Amino acid sequence: MAKSGFCLDPESAAAVTVLKRAVQLDSESGYQQALICYQEGIDLLLQVLKDGKYHKQIKIEENATGFSYESLFQEYLNETVTEVWIEDPYIRHMHQLYNFLRFCELLIKRPCKVKTIHLLTSLDEGFGKQQQTSGLEEIKESLGSHGVLLELEYSSSIHDREIRFNNGWMIKIGRGLDYFKKPQGRFSLGYCDFDLRPCHETTVDIFHNKYTKKI
To answer: In this structure, are residues 100 and 87 in contact, taking their beta carbons and an 8 Å threshold?
Structure first.
């Protein structure tokens, strides 16, 4: 199984380094020095939170597994989430429409009480236009039956990919929602359970800022 790693912004990394030192001192019976390091590390973390800034980076390696939408997003979804903004230029083809539908299903079944989902994507100008627009309208109708409004907007200049929640979390995925590989077969592991589905290599950047702007 392929692995992934993550890194923090300099301020958070400094806090983690100090707290690791505190744990080491604690294990070596250097209680007084450990106490000082614990206090310093906690102060650094509180300063990060006070500034309203947070950055975590997850690097998903080629063929890595364990990165379903639920595994990736559940930490940031709670009962305070009522509105979601999704900016992804590639919600066009059939598998990409299913990816978006799967993400919407996550928003419905999690403890959050989502009422509005905003999707900004590009319009397929080729033969797939009808499939794209009808698919998104069907998703919109289905969400509506669950009391959720899907607002669709198309842009010809969209490039960036990001997802924002109104609780301040913002997730940027290099490949957007389309980071899963095709299953090896219709009856292979990972066809249904996306935690078992191999991924393309990509990077996930997670931020938190109380001044996050809407898309």
So the answer is: no
